[in-house]
Amino acid sequence: MRPDDLASLRTPGAATVSPDGSTAVVAVTRLDLVADEYRSQLWAVPTDASAPARPLTHGHRDSAPVFSPDGRWLAFLGAESGGKPQLHLLPTAGGEARRLTDHPLGAGSPVWSPDSRRIAYTARVPEEGRYGTAEGVGPDAEEPRLITTLQYRSDDLGFTVDRRRHVFVLDLPTDAADDAAPLADPVQVTSGDHDDSDVAWHPAGTELVFVSARHPRADRDLVTDLYACRPDGSHLRRVTESRSSCSAPTYDPDDLEGRTLYLAAQPDLGPDGLDFVGRNTTLCRVEAAGGHPQPLLDAERNDLGHDFGRVVVADGNAFVAVQRQGAVELVRVPLAGGEPEALVDGPYTVRGIGVGGGVVVGTVAHDRSAGELVAITPGRRRLLTGFGAPLQATGRLHRMREKTATAPDGYPVHGWITVPDGPGPHPVLLTVHGGPFSQYGWSLLDETQAYVSAGYAVLQCNPRGSSGYGQEHGRVVKERFGELDADDVLAFLDEALQEPELDDSRVGVMGGSYGGYMTTLLVGRTQRFAAAISERAFNDPVSFVGSSDIGFFFADQYLGTDPERIAAQSAMAGAHQITTPTLVIHSEEDWRCPLEQGTRLFVELKRRGVHTELLLFPGEGHELSRSGRPRHRRARLAHVLRWWGRWLPTPQNSSAAALPVGSEPAPDAVEEQEPRAVAQA
Questions:
Q1: HEC secondary structure over 479-528
Q2: In a 3-state reduction of DSSP, which class is residue 459?
Q3: Rounded mean pLDDT of the chain?
Q4: Which residues, other chains included, contact 219 with Cβ-Cβ below 8 Å and sequence gap of 6+?
Q5: What is the 3-state secondary structure (H, E, C) of 370-412?
Q6: Predicted structure pTM score
Q7: Do the beta carbons of residue 477 and residue 469 sit within 8 Å?
Q8: Is residue 384 a contact partner of residue 47, using CB atoms and an 8 Å limit?
Q9: What is its EC number (predicted)?
Q10: Is pLDDT of 273 > 90?
Q11: What pLDDT is stored for residue 654 in this prediction?
Q12: Of residues 643 and 662, which shows the higher confidence score?
């Protein structure tokens, strides 16, 4: 895979399935490198595989499709180029989509009422005079912000205290098929200095349930509760009063009395509501009248992950995606009791779930596709799509191979090796994921494929601290950052280097976020690596506390509060010992691991004459490599390959070594607002 091959990536979201089970509709996203933006459209797919997928809409960026319960309508989000997503309504019998909303900051995903007459959703409500609500007043001319809370901004969003997210309900016209029928104004259901999310309808349409943090300590902990109110906002009540982090509530649509809610939750965050380290998110239930979330799956072994999507309840079952040692399984959980059943397991990553008419449709990724739709009916699974075909047709994708190494204390370290074509030994790139409570696994990672195509063997592992291996695996690094986890990473590297295909004399290390921390830490302890790339790193826990959007709790919970122990775990504390050539990559608007975390490392190395560069991306946040501007993602890959071409040249990646420092990585990567490369020492 080459940087330009990003344009061939096709990434489907979660599908919605028609009530009769005959059709799935899914949004498929692609990168438009020419226009430097993301495009997406809705595709319709017969679930019996009787015909190929066909485009259903041709908007600029259409997403979040949902069939109405009566099957007559498809609600979705549509955004024009440079615009915000707004609700749209498309008749399933044919016709044009109609725009329903005009929120200045955009609308959230639609949620149908049981009678198909109303749509609930969330939207951010800007403070008067901000975010373009006052004509002629740009961001630089707005009134100053007075901050009085710990939680006041979020990465990839910015300030939140002056644009709270609230619940809205929109009544559809009596004759929704009449394009001339006037639209009702959306009704704002919730208000106040809180963020509300994850709205769902009571099966009788009499009440809404949503997620919010409105308790007295809400600014100082991570607890979120379920709240309920009538569709007009009256009779607000708190459903859960616990120490849980609640999300994605839903009712059983067949229980018209709505006695039980199902949700995803971290069941217990401890007495201060902050003990999140290594806590699995699992499937729970709670009485709709009020109570504490009760796990339906063993919280020690079953983790839905931080991006699991939503809990789907249908036909007496709950359907969830569970992380499992690098895979993400589609699991059916009987609500009446009984053993959960994996509907999709093995070397796959389930990214979305839709159910309708007795048909389960999973969005399933693997190491050669960012996602395909698979229809599951009793005794049968059908592959419905081939969205990965354009990238597969390049012939530049490589298969992953599992490997398990042994840490010094005998602990198993699970991971993967991806090797280039042709005879070895190949130079090696050891990559470390972020989190740390996340996992590498069975999915198409564009970065890995680009490095392998450039001639590098790529090593990926899930050291202690990662998710998918049980809570103890994730929690053991608490106040022991850089100890057992570093041992695991190096043990995996050492064992992998025993293979003859890998060149143990030519090894580089790289990672982002927590992976950037581990990279900085390792090159401060050893000179074994030819070069390093530390990206968007968590380098200094002390300054992180006051600069990161999660700083008020993250470092304390992971590293503790004892100054000596913090220093022992800090990557920056050992930076004065780094002699390894190191490229520092950071985004200028990263609020998760703020820019100073990268610039301080660069300056430390630069002052001591270490070969170093600082690559800065304007306008980007922490998620650059996953959702940044398409041209920035391409430029990032090109610069990474340029760096490795200099310090670990290969036949496929040697010309980049001759590029002068700070020059363009490739003619097709010179764009407006190009990343800034600061020259090496």
A1: CCCCCHHHHHHHHHHHHHCCCCCEEEEEEEEEEECHHHHHHHHHHCCCCC
A2: strand
A3: 94
A4: 149, 150, 151
A5: EEEEEEEECCEEEECCCCCHHHHCCCCCCCCEEEEEECCCCCE
A6: 0.94
A7: no
A8: yes
A9: 3.4.-.-
A10: yes
A11: 83
A12: 643
